[in-house]
Amino acid sequence: MVDGEAAISRHLTRELIDRLRRVRADNAGLRPVRSALSAREWEVLDLLCAGLATREIAAELQLSRETVRSHVEHILCKLHVTSREAAVARARRLRAEGRLPAP
Fold this sequence. Notes:
The protein is mostly helical. It has one domain: Arc Repressor Mutant, subunit A. It has helices at residues 10-26, 39-49, 54-61, 65-79, 84-97. Helix 2 (39-49) packs across helix 4 (65-79), helix 2 crosses helix 5 (84-97) and helix 4 (65-79) packs across helix 5 (84-97). The mean pLDDT is 81.
């Protein structure tokens, strides 16, 4: 403790900065802080971005296929797109631009 605050070593600070740079470099998994999508919808969208099919997403998240389809429908509606491919493209664009989907 230094003056009542926790001190962080230079080594740890450097490591944290390096990790943040790596995350920002690929933007994978980054989600806008304020978003029209729920946390679960972002999980489903992340898996769509990874190229998983409905049955694979259902298995990964331990959900029924119907639940995954429902999440996908909500995602399409909230992102104002009409296909999974368009949703993936929009998600990548949002991450790259740091923009938020309209509520």
